[in-house]
Each structure stands twice: as C-alpha cells, then as structure tokens.
Amino acid sequence: MNNHIIFLLYSLLFIHSIIGYGFLFGRIVDKKLLNINLGYIGIIGFFFICLLSTISSFFIAHGYSHNITFHFIGLLSFLYFINFSKNLVEIKYLWILTFLLLIGLYIYKNHDDFPYYHLTYALNLSENGFLIGTGNFSHGFRTFSSLFYFHSILYMPYIDFYLFHSGPFFILIFFNYIILYKMLKFLKSNKLNLIFYFSLLSFIFINIAFYRIAEHGTDRSAQILLIIIFILFFDIVFFEKNSNNILTKSKLLLILIFLASSMKVIYYLYLILVPIIFFRKKLLISFLNNKNLLIILILSSSLSLNIITNYLNTGCLLYPAEKTCIFKQQWSIPKAEVKKMSVHYEWWSKAGGGPEYKSKMTPEEYVKNFNWLNNWIERHFFNKVTDSLFGISFIALVVFISFRIFLKRKTKISFKKKDIVIYLIPLFFLIEWFLNHPSMRYGGYVLFAIPIFIFTAFQLQNYILPKKIPYVITISLIIFTLFTYNIRNISRLDKEITFYKYNLIESPFFFINKVNTEKIIDKNNYKIFSPENNNMCWASKTPCSYNRNIGIKNFLWMKMIYRNDK
Questions:
Q1: What is the pLDDT along the chain (566 residues), one digit of tens a residue?
Q2: Edge-to-edge strands of the sheet including 131-132?
Q3: Residue 558 is inside which H or E element, if any?
Q4: Which long-range contacts (CB under 8 A, 24 or more apart) does 326-333 make?
Q5: Are 409 and 463 in contact (CB under 8 A)?
Q6: Are the CB atoms for 34 and 23 separated by under 8 Å?
Q7: Alpha-carbon distance values, 114 to 125, 318, 528, 547 (Å)
Q8: Contact at 8 Å (CB) between 120 and 134?
C-alpha cells in the first residue's frame, strides 16, 4: 500500500509543479495568459518544462539532484503565484478530476516502442544527459520528441523511472479540465454555441477512445492537443470580438501548436492557423510589436531546439528529410541510410509494414503514384479507419439525438458563405494526412473526428432548448463518459492481472523485463551496453545500443557517439 501512496503523491507533486511552471511562464511572458483556467496554465507549464528540460540536458544529466531541484522550483512557483482566493476551488476540482481519471495511470504492459527506445531514451537523459549522435544506437533514437525530455525530469527517488509513461496522463487531465471548464461556463450563461457542442463531443470521444494511457506513446497526446487547438481557433475566428483577447488567445494557440509539434514534427503544419486568424481579424501588426517579442523569441527557441537536437542526433536538420542532412559530421547518419529510412516510414504509414503483408513491389515503388492505395484500403481503411469512423459517428449521433428531442425552436444562427473556407480547413489537414502519412497514429483519429463534430455542433447550435434541459443532458453525458472510461480501464486491468499474473495491490508499477547486456569497452575506454539475444534495451544500463559497432569520444563538454565503420 505504501507503493500506491508514493505513486499518488508523486503524481500530484508533478501536476502542481507543472502548473507552477505555467504560472512562472505567464509571469515572464504575458500575465494575461494567467487569466484563463487552470487547465490551460497546466498546458503552458508542460510546454515550458519540455523547453527547459531539453536545454538543461545539454549541460547536466537529469538525475535525482537535478530533478528534485527542478520540481522544488516548480512547487515554489505554484505556492508563490497561486491566488488562493481565486484558484483554490479550481485546485479542488483538479484534484477530483485527477482521482476520477487515476485508474488510467495504472498499467502493467506498455506499448511495443516503450522497451525499444522510449524508456531507454529518457533513462539515458537521466543517467548521461544529452549524447551527440544518439541516432547511431538505432533508428528509434533518431526522432526527437519532447515527451522523452519531459519524462526524464520525472526520474525521482524510490519511483525511479516508473512514471515515465505519465506525461500523456497529465495532458489528458489538463485537456479534460479545459473542456469541462468551458462547457460549464457555457451552461451557466445558457449560450450553447458551436464551441460548446464541439467540446462536449470531443470530451466524450477522447476519454472513451484514448482511455488506455499505455497506448498513447508520442502520438495521442499531440492529437489531444489538436482538439484544443481547433477549439481555440474556432472560438477566436467566430466568437471573440475583443482584440486584446484575440491576441492573448492567439499566443495560447501558438504555445499549443509548438508543444504538439515538439512531440511530432508533422504538426508544425498547423501554424498556418495563426496567420489566418491575424489576417481575418487584421491584427498581424498588433502581434508583431515589442510586447510580444519575448514570446516570439521563446517559441522560435523551441523550433530551434527541435532542429538542433535533430542535427546533433542524426546530422540532419529535419530527420528523415535527406536534403536537410548538411555539414556532414562524425556522428552523421549516412545519407543513403537516411533516404532508405524516409521511404521506410512512408511505406509503413501507408500500410506497407507488417509481417502479414507481402508484395513484389519494392518500398520505393509501393509509395509512388498511389500504388499503395488498394492495400491501404484493404488493410487499414477496412480495419482501423472504419472502426474509428463508426465510433465517432455513433458518439455524434448519440449527442445529437440527446439534445434534438428537447429542441424548442430555431435561432437566427445561419451558415455564412464567407466562412466556408474556415469550415473546410480541417478537411485540408485530413487530405494532407491521407496523401502523406495515412496512419491513424499520425493524427487520423482526431482528423476524422473534427469535421464530423463540427457538422454536428453546427446543426445543434441552431436551436434553443428549454432551461435546465441542457444542464441535465450534459451532466448525464459527462458522468456516462467518466464511468465508461473507468469501466474500460477496470476491464483492462482485470485482463492484465489475469494474463500476466500481475498483483496490482502489491505494486502500481509497470512491468520491466530484466535483460542481460554485453559490456563493450571502446578504444577510448568508454562503456557501451548492448542487449543479448536480440532483446530490447528496456531499463538496462545506459548508454544502451543495438548497434555494437560504435564508439564514444569527448566533444566539447559533451560526449559523442560515432560509428566505427565510417
């Protein structure tokens, strides 16, 4: 039972530390960012921690001393900046929400990439700090994700690395708080517009579809952020009239986009939403002034860190784009290998991967001229896509019927032809997804949901409901969603306990396979560990490499991984 208490206390400590860094960021950059709900402040704090964690990894390992100090500053910021008269009720609700969702944090088996490189990457940062040329360990270590850097600062006494999966859990908590706060605010004002219905639909979908935290990896957190991005976008474009509020919300939108992009680089494409807002609201000049110089600089630093980290990992500014592999260095991945991996990723995302699929076409031939389409339709569309579409459509139908049967009369809200481009923007991103990386993990779940939810929300906002009816329906759907989330997780845990003979009462920690590693001493007398019997690194000593033909040397104040075969 002590394990569970410590597990819970650390989770709450991290939540308050994250919020503390959100307060700190707002005080440094723009105090107006703090005049929003606690969920947004948590997201801001998450972004700030990812940024600071990435920077500090270049200078120091994220061991106990670093991380204790790091979270001590976060907690001090929380206590110093929090307005107890204003925020105490919000904190209470945040605690309640955390307990309601807590069961999702209990896992036994992680996703397949966790033992391969997710755990090892974060653990390496905890034990060694940033290593130049980490991409030489294997292809999994070549792709930057801020979640690894976030998880590395969760390495703490007693729990060690056993909360390295919790980043997505915190994102889920903050997402739910944002959505619930928005919906209840709309209910109090009795103004059920597009944002309200879209938020309700998204709340149901995310909690039911993304209930298993172990499956989130680096993909689903970014998709959850994408939901909030579009809520903010539509709120600014259609409903916000105050220019100061528009600028503040646009800053928040930028933070969300940069955070999502730091998890998956493909989401930088969504930066196009910001100039759309500025040109539509004629506020571009207002944003590009001295007052906003600091946040522009910080966001630019986030992008620069992504590029720099990519380059120091692989020798490419944007891996696996071969043309960005410039200024060849000792640690650089050979261009031929980069090109091969670029095709491999596209081949995999277009349903070319998997042992059950066999083709006479080479991966290069497969990805050209829609040669992949028939196989994608057969193996991916009539599997994951249709399943997801059915679930999304069912949620939309249930919500529509729940409100429609009580609709009283039609309002004056109507479709404006000039807004058609705005409504079509999600379809543009869906087409881009389909053409370039049509795997559900790369945004598909949310990109299919958004157009359907927008259409449903638009239909419902055209009607007025009798008083109290919206409140009753909404609360009922919220309770049903949270109940379903918990029931699905209870069922999951029951299966894990039965199949793996897992004793949840004894330990809240996930399974770690104990692997034997071979210790390799390179010519510079540095130790490198490599798993035996083609096993994965798991939590073995670091640096852990699947490539045994590498060495380590000093480079400036850091260490560099290089290939001996070059």
A1: 688 899 999 999 999 999 999 999 999 998 888 888 899 999 999 999 999 999 999 999 999 999 999 999 999 999 999 887 777 888 999 999 999 999 999 999 998 899 999 999 999 999 999 999 999 999 889 988 999 999 999 999 999 999 999 999 999 999 999 999 999 988 887 778 899 999 999 999 999 999 999 999 889 999 999 999 999 999 999 888 888 888 889 999 999 999 999 999 999 999 999 989 888 877 766 677 767 888 889 999 999 999 999 999 999 999 988 999 988 899 999 999 999 999 999 999 998 776 566 677 888 999 998 999 999 998 889 988 999 999 999 999 999 999 988 876 666 555 566 677 788 899 999 999 999 999 999 999 999 999 999 999 988 887 777 878 889 999 999 999 999 999 999 999 999 888 888 888 888 999 999 898 888 777 778 888 999 888 899 999 999 999 988 999 999 899 999 988 65
A2: 131-132, 558-563, 550-555
A3: strand 558-563
A4: 330/133, 330/560, 330/562, 330/566, 331/132, 331/133, 331/135, 331/136, 331/560, 331/561, 331/562, 333/135, 333/136, 333/142
A5: yes
A6: yes
A7: 15, 23, 20, 18
A8: no
User: 537 Cβ partners below 8 Å, 6+ apart?
Assistant: 115, 116, 117, 119, 120, 515, 517, 529, 531, 544, 546
Tokens read off for 8:
């819970």
- For residue 196 the two structure tokens come to 């309200």
DSSP 46-102: HHHHHHHHHHHHTTS---HHHHHHHHHHHHHHHHHH--HHHHHHHHHHHHHHHHHHG
- When computed from its CA atoms, the radius of gyration of the chain, rounded to whole angstroms, is 24
Tokens of 67: 């991380």
Cα separation of 311 and 305, whole Å? 10
Nearest alpha carbon to residue 232 among 22, 80, 16, 39: 39
**Environment class of residue 457 by beta-carbon count within 10 Å: exposed (0-12), middle (13-18) or buried (19+)?**
buried
Rounded Cα gap, residues 405 and 414, in angstroms: 20
Whole-model pTM? 0.95
